[in-house]
Write a structure and sequence with these properties.
Bound molecules: phosphoenolpyruvate, magnesium ion
Radius of gyration: 31 Å
Number of strands: 35
Number of helices: 28
């Protein structure tokens, strides 16, 4: 930017002015960061030396930067080594991104605390954008806060932006782990920026999806890196390779800080190879296990030019690329391995049709941007919006958006979508894999994958399951530093990744797998047998389904009915609501697949929380899991519920129809919904209302089960939500995954209470949450008196087989003991011991 006016900077504090050369810290006295001045303060409030925007505010509150209206960047740093105080002693009065006026108070600090705990109170004001300065007062005098002390001199055009090597392709470094205990704060950031300026290439520093200009101190500080972050350096231009090599070396050495002593437990990338046997833990996205070699998959950055001369031509480029992308997706749909895969690419096609994306892109093209730039900006802005909505499911959809966005971009740039070229026995490691990458994996070579991002409900996880590949997500980011070719064990069932596994562990795992396979074969052969305990008690084993295909599969695997049809999944990813006729057809088809003697439990729309439904627009909520979810949302839009009731009722008579309400927490909700249902039953001239039940997935419903029981026909316990609401732990939180455990005695006590209340009124109780699909939980749930287990379709044979091994009276005694245990770990251990003991008894007999 051309700077035309001189600008006076005000003293940010009162105190004694010192020349920079006297600052006892070479990084400041050498002016590596920038020229400026230093004040030994007598006041305790740092004020703005110029008006502008807070372009960076360090989390620890000891430093901030302001970018003025003419583009000057001024950094203020209170005290020396104050980053180590981790925010103690500082009170920020402003926020990053805020516009501030010259003289406005920015940060208050406790001078006594700093004097005792930091190296020095000397406070720096440095112009980091590189302009020439003139001092307005002599050194060593006392200045007043707000008094003009420095003047930034005007600079010519040539002093503006550095030449960008835009057209050159960017080269990326291997990921590396930041070991600096306080991240890249002013001192290491200054050294890095200084080093980067020594190269002609344009250089960026990346952390996840954020990037910084590596030649700008403020930009690096704005990344707010912390110890353990995984960083990558990229460079474009003739000396790019050299720049990357030098900067990676500098980062690995700590950018002037002693990183080895300061980072116990966290090693720089290269050191990881020295720690075989370290286990990385994440969340299972697709079950199974594999042993293979690490193949790191780095994100591909596309060369995008910002401006274009002819908007009409750019519009045509965009239209053409969109058409081609839709065609590619159609091909992927046609060759899809199954319904799940086909659905995902259909959803991608719909995203390409989104009017707001196109509107945003066209608006940018009209301002002279290239089609690629405009499209990319529209995709990024919308993906950011998805991520910021507080819903893990929407955040996962942002991955789909980015994926489809890249597909179109590649078409525009004339780049081919090519499958990754891989060695044999590859275990892919990535920050995030896209659905397109996952679908095009060569399963002859890929044994599984592990990612930092993603969740168990992501499309990538669904695809992994469809491909039968084991996968883990939510791993710590240092997984990205494992060297290519490292031998690795991916144990997705346990959510564990073992670099350099020892042979004994491998052998143990192999024999376990073999036993499991044998058992699966046996269970499958006996899938049609009823689930009756050794002492003659029948437990109904039904299926959780979300489509007609799953209903059919469930019946073929011995399912005795459907205990949960998650109706919100029938028309997920649709931009418009299905017609009433289409809905009725779907329910009737499922009812016919079950026939007249089996139960079909249709749950009404459970939208909200982590399950948005595209054609039911909802307001943004701060806590969607505690907001308008399930029945609350339906009662707020009674027409939606009435329409669904009518569609479900169309299948009355074809099967043993049950209707179930999700997320009920109050009696009034049940009564209101029942009234709506009764109205529709009457309007259709039906003789009676089908069985009506509620899900027990909110503690209030479990605690009030004795009041609900007389007014319902059945309960079904949703242990997934019941666990998250009882333990106050987000069910999709990767870090809480191991603690948000449905085996927790608090959840088991709520189940016991629900069963007692239901049975006292002659009503049956099912469990349809994931707990029901765990073979370990079967004796416990049986012992607690549960009447039905509605389980994930492929697990029907195993759960039925487990029931057949048990004795009801023993299970009752077991449940009585377990309910008194202290936590989920104890419960699991206890059940495992019983399981082993029972197994050995079976073997002895
Ligand atoms: C549950 O919460 O346990 C349940 C079965 O419902 P969903 O997983 O669909 O929320
Ligand atoms: Mg639920």
């Amino acid at each position: 930017m051309a700077i035309t006016q001189p600008l006076q900077l005000l003293a940010p504090l009162s105190g004694v002015l010192l020349p920079l050369d006297q600052v006892p810290d070479p990084v400041f006295s050498s002016r590596v960061i920038g020229d400026g001045l230093c004040i030994d303060p007598t006041t305790q409030t740092l004020c703005a030396p110029l008006s502008g925007v807070i372009s960076n505010l360090q989390h620890s509150g000891h430093a901030l930067s302001i970018t003025g209206e003419q583009g000057h960047q001024v950094l203020m740093h209170i005290g020396l080594d104050t980053v180590n105080l981790a925010g103690k002693g500082f009170t920020c009065l402003v926020e990053e991104g805020q516009q501030v006026a010259a003289g406005q108070p920015l940060i208050e600090f406790d001078a006594d605390y700093l004097a005792q705990h930091a190296r020095s109170l000397l406070t720096l004001m440095l112009v980091v954008s590189g302009e020439a300065l003139t001092g307005l007062v002599t050194d060593s005098v006392l200045v007043e806060a707000g008094q003009p002390v420095l003047q930034i001199e005007p600079a010519g055009e040539e002093n503006g932006a550095e030449p960008q090597a835009e057209d050159a392709e960017a080269v990326f470094s291997q990921p590396l782990i930041l070991a600096n205990p306080q991240g890249l704060h002013a001192r290491p950031a200054a050294l890095l920026a200084q080093a980067a300026k020594g190269f002609a290439a344009s250089i960026s520093l990346h952390r996840r999806e954020d990037s910084a200009n590596a030649k700008s101190l403020v930009s690096i500080m704005a990344l707010q890196t912390v110890q353990g972050d995984v960083l990558q350096v990229s460079a474009a231009g003739e000396d790019a390779e050299r720049a990357i090599q030098a900067l990676v070396q500098l980062l690995a050495s700590g950018c002037g800080e002693n990183v080895r002593a300061a980072a116990p437990g966290l090693q720089p990338a290269a050191a990881l190879d020295e720690t075989p046997g370290t286990v990385l833990r994440g969340v299972c996205a697709s079950p199974g296990s594999a042993v293979g070699q690490v193949v790191q998959v780095a994100e591909q950055r596309l060369p995008i030019t910002e401006c274009a001369a002819n908007p009409q031509q750019e519009r045509e480029v965009l239209e053409q690329a969109l058409r081609e992308a839709v065609r590619d997706l159609q091909q992927l749909r046609d060759n899809a391995l199954g319904e799940a895969q086909e659905e995902i690419f259909r959803a991608h096609q719909e995203l390409l049709d989104d009017p707001s994306l196109l509107e945003q892109a066209h608006a940018l093209i009209a301002t002279g941007k290239s089609a690629a730039f405009a499209w990319n900006a529209a995709i990024e802005a919308t993906a950011e919006l998805f991520k910021g909505l507080g819903s893990s499911l929407l955040a996962e959809r942002a991955v789909d958006l980015a994926d489809v966005g890249q597909r179109v971009l590649k078409r525009m740039l004339g780049l081919q979508e090519h499958a990754l070229s891989l060695p044999d026995q590859a275990i892919l490691i990535a920050e995030q894999l896209t659905p397109s990458q996952t679908a095009s994996l060569d399963t002859a070579k890929v044994l599984g994958f592990a990612t930092v991002g993603g969740g168990a409900t992501s499309h990538v996880a669904i695809l992994a399951r469809a491909l039968g590949l084991p996968a883990i997500c939510g791993l710590p980011s240092w997984v990205l530093s494992l060297a290519n070719g490292t031998r690795i064990l991916l144990d997705a069932d346990r959510g564990e990744l073992h670099p350099d596994p020892d042979p004994q562990h491998l052998q143990q795992l192999q024999s376990q797998r073999q036993q499991q396979r044998l058992r699966q074969r046996q269970d499958l052969a006996q899938a049609a047998w009823p689930a009756v305990t050794r002492d003659g008690h029948h437990l109904e084993v039904t299926a959780n389904i979300a489509s007609l295909a799953e209903a059919e599969q469930a019946m073929s695997l011995g399912g005795e009915g459907v205990g949960l049809l998650r109706s919100e999944f029938l028309y997920q990813d649709r931009g418009h609501a299905p017609s009433p006729e289409e809905q009725a057809d779907t329910y009737q088809a499922i009812a016919r697949a079950l026939g007249p003697t089996r139960n079909l439990v249709v749950r009404t729309l459970d939208v909200g929380g982590d399950k948005p439904l595209a054609y039911v627009p909802m307001d943004r909520e701060a806590n969607p899991f505690l907001g308008l979810r399930g029945i609350r949302l339906c009662l707020a839009r009674p027409e939606l519920l009435r329409e669904q009731f009518r569609a479900i009722l169309a299948s009355a008579g074809q099967t043993r129809l049950h209707i179930m309400l999700p997320m009920v927490s109050q009696l009034a909700e049940l009564r209101q919904a029942r009234q709506l249902l009764d109205d529709e039953v009457r309007a259709l001239g039906l003789a009676q209302r089908p069985k009506l039940g509620i899900m027990i997935e909110v503690p209030s419903a479990a605690l009030m089960a004795d009041r609900f029981a007389p007014e319902v026909d059945f309960f079904s316990i949703g242990t997934n939500d019941l666990t998250q609401y009882t333990l106050a732990m987000d069910r999709d939180h990767p870090r809480l995954a191991s603690q948000a455990d449905s085996f927790h005695p608090s959840v088991l006590r709520l189940i016991a209470r629900t069963v007692q209340a239901a049975h006292a009124h002659g009503k049956w109780v099912g469990v349809c949450g994931a707990l029901a699909s765990e073979t370990l939980a079967v004796p416990l749930l049986l012992g607690l008196g549960v009447d039905e287990l509605s389980v994930s379709v492929p697990l029907i044979p195993a759960i039925k087989a487990r029931v057949r091994e048990l004795d009801l009276s023993e299970c009752q005694a077991l449940a009585a003991r377990i309910i008194d245990l202290e936590d989920a770990v104890q419960v699991r251990e206890y059940l495992q011991q019983q399981h082993v003991a029972a197994d050995s008894l079976i073997l002895e007999n």
